[in-house]
Write a structure and sequence with these properties.
By secondary structure, this protein is mainly alpha-helical. It is built from 10 helices and 2 strands, in the order ααααααααααββ.
Length: 229
């Protein structure tokens, strides 16, 4: 059984772990107080994840005034859309990155930020934090449904925090053009493969903690055209 932490941390998984511990203590929802605390931690987990995505897109350290201005997940969601595009663009961007990683034989999942779903779940969790839910929590059917809702929220959040490596960026203008065509349905995985084979590609990881950089995956050597003469 997951244990409770007594000190808050900034780790992305902290609130998810706390919520899962409360959910486990709820005995399938029978212990309704545990459901309320699980929902509260899941709501914090959603906000923490949103701030993580926003900070990645800002490309600068968060300031105190930034956090103070984010009084709801909707504000965080809108800030992400302003910098990263709306959900269709985000979906396409992360799918493009997964295609790229697969071609380079890099085993990373890189989950797509599901902002609309996260926003819906943030509001769902908020319902548990008001007196109305507590007053109605003697209803066994309501409690059973609430438990099922929180299990669905738990599953999504575990998926979302499982393999985060930042918000992938692309600097090369021609590669950006290919990504835009991919998002708009004008290019596919085969086009990405041909692009890499024409130019060659390799991947190196640079760490921020002083460790030396290292190559990852398998390089794609550029194809050399045979002499037709």
């Amino acid at each position: 059984m997951t244990s409770f932490a007594l000190i808050r941390t900034a780790d992305l998984k902290h609130h998810v772990t706390q919520a899962s511990a409360w959910l486990a203590q709820s005995s399938g929802g029978a212990n309704s107080v545990a459901l309320s605390y699980a929902a509260f931690e899941f709501r914090l987990a959603i906000e923490r994840l949103g701030i993580y995505y926003w900070a990645e897109l800002l490309s600068r350290p968060l300031q105190e005034k930034d956090i103070g201005d984010l009084t709801s997940f909707k504000r965080i969601e809108n800030r992400i859309y302003e910098l990263g595009g709306h959900q269709k663009e985000i979906d396409g961007h992360f799918e493009f990155i997964r295609v790229l990683l697969a071609l380079l034989k890099i085993d990373r999942k890189i989950p797509t930020p599901k902002l609309g779903q996260l926003s819906k779940y943030w509001h769902k969790c908020s319902e548990f934090c008001h007196i109305g839910w507590s007053l109605a929590s003697g209803d066994s059917q309501l409690v059973a449904k609430s438990y099922a809702d929180l299990k669905a929220i738990e599953a999504l959040l575990i998926e979302q925090v499982s393999d985060l490596t930042g918000w992938p960026r692309i600097a090369d203008s021609s590669f950006v053009d290919l990504k835009v065509r991919f998002i708009n349905g004008l290019a596919n995985a085969g086009d990405v493969q041909r692009y890499l084979e024409e130019r060659g590609a390799w991947t190196r990881v640079r760490y921020n903690d002083g460790r030396p950089s290292e190559f990852v995956g398998e390089p794609i050597p550029p194809k050399v055209e045979k002499d037709k003469t």
